């Protein structure tokens, strides 16, 4: 559950914005075919720190985000897509559906499936894959 100010109900958990930014970093890095080690070296940090950024368990500083964007050849805005400014005061709200997608894409299988699925050319085959996933989820 997300509160009005965008904080997770569990105060010990990562902030939804940190999770969203971390996921965007991970997706961009993977899209470029880069390892966590390569990104870590470019940012002069450990690969474990990259893991923490990507999971949202550690917040990435503005300067490191700037360096990451430069290394990943991406505009800063890319890392904030999916984070909606829900009020003038700057509160953030991330829907349950967006949270589900984020959790899915935080897994190696989720990333692999997300990369492979769009390459299935026939719509009928894509529908069958979706039906299979729904059936398996019911078990």
What does this entry look like structurally?
The chain is mainly α and 139 residues long. The chain folds into two domains: 1-106, lambda repressor-like DNA-binding domains (434 Repressor (Amino-terminal Domain)), CATH 1.10.260; 107-139. The protein has seven helices and two strands. The chain has a two-stranded antiparallel sheet. The relative contact order is 0.14.
Provide the fold topology.
Layout: H1 16-31, H2 36-43, H3 47-55, H4 62-71, E1 84-85, E2 92-93, H5 96-105, H6 108-116, H7 123-138
Helix pairs in contact: 1-3, 2-3
Label this structure with key terms:
139 residues, 56% helix, disordered N terminus, 2 domains, mainly alpha, two-stranded antiparallel ribbon, 434 Repressor (Amino-terminal Domain)
Short description:
This protein has helices at residues 16-31, 36-43, 47-55, 62-71, 96-105, 108-116, 123-138; strands at residues 84-85, 92-93. It has 139 residues and is an all-alpha fold.
Counted beta strands? 2
How many H/I helices? 7
User: Which runs of at least 5 residues are low in confidence (pLDDT < 50)?
Assistant: 1-9
CATH topology of the largest domain: 434 Repressor (Amino-terminal Domain)
Run of helices and strands? HHHHEEHHH
**How big a fraction of the residues is strand?**
under 5%
- The CATH architecture name of the largest domain reads Orthogonal Bundle
Question: How would you characterize the largest beta sheet?
Answer: 2 strands, antiparallel
CATH class of the largest domain: Mainly Alpha
User: What count of domains describes the coordinates?
Assistant: 2
Percent helix range? 55-70%
Q: What's the gyration radius in Å? A: 17 Å
Look at the helices and sheets and give the structural class. mainly alpha
CATH superfamily of the largest domain: lambda repressor-like DNA-binding domains
Distance between the termini: 25 Å
Q: Estimate the global geometry from the Cα principal axes.
A: globular
Q: Give the neighbour order of strands across the main sheet.
A: 1-2
Mean pLDDT: 82
So what's the oligomer here? single chain
């Amino acid at each position: 559950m997300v509160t009005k100010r965008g904080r997770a109900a569990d105060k010990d958990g990562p902030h939804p914005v940190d999770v969203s930014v971390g996921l965007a970093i991970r997706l961009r890095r993977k899209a470029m075919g880069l390892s966590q080690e390569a990104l870590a070296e470019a940012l002069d940090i450990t690969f474990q720190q990259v893991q923490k950024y990507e999971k949202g368990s550690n917040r990435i500083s503005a300067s490191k985000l700037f360096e990451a964007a430069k290394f990943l050849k991406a505009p800063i805005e890319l890392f904030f897509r999916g984070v909606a400014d829900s009020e003038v005061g700057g509160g953030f709200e991330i829907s349950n559906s967006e949270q589900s997608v984020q959790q899915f894409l935080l897994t190696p299988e989720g990333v692999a499936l997300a990369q492979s699925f769009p390459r299935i050319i026939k719509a009928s085959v894509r529908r069958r894959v979706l039906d299979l996933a729904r059936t398996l989820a019911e078990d």
